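We append the chain.
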Amino acid sequence: MDHQMETSPKSLGEAGHANGKPVTFSITQLAEEFGLTTRAVRFYEDKGLLSPERQGQTRVYHPRDRARLILIVRGKNVGLALSEIKEILSLYDLQDGCETQNKVAIDKFRRRIGSLERQRKEIDLQIATLQESCDRLEGQLKGQLASAGVHADMAKPLAEPKKRAKPAAAKSQPAERAGASA
């Protein structure tokens, strides 16, 4: 979801301030902005992906937490495991200008691309196999209908097979036994 909050990241200064005040977010604000539940946000916290400030029982999220949540959601959307996302996020503070973080991210992204390309080939093969089978079976069906004297366009599609009901005898046995002993 692309919900903008009153204080959008574009309006924040580099230090995460708007109008001279530090910008913070509630768990509800972040959850709504990213189309998550508050439970999901807390789950990411439990996994060490987010670390909001605490003011009593209240979680206070800063622009850094929001930026991390953006990366978490993007990573999940492309199929990265939480452990992979955590590894990438953990490299942010290395003081190397994010060079290591970017290299690790590129490696993980390339691996994911390769995995998705393999899956696409498998799906394309399955589709082609199913299409060939449909074409072959439709040809057989037309031949069967023609030999039976039925025009293929007039034949109705087959209904889905019905599930078999349990035999009535199994249901009525207790009643029969009760009647026999009376």
The chain has two domains: 9-80, 91-151. DSSP finds six helices and four strands in the chain. The radius of gyration is 30 Å. Strands lie at 17-18, 21-22, 53-55, 58-60.
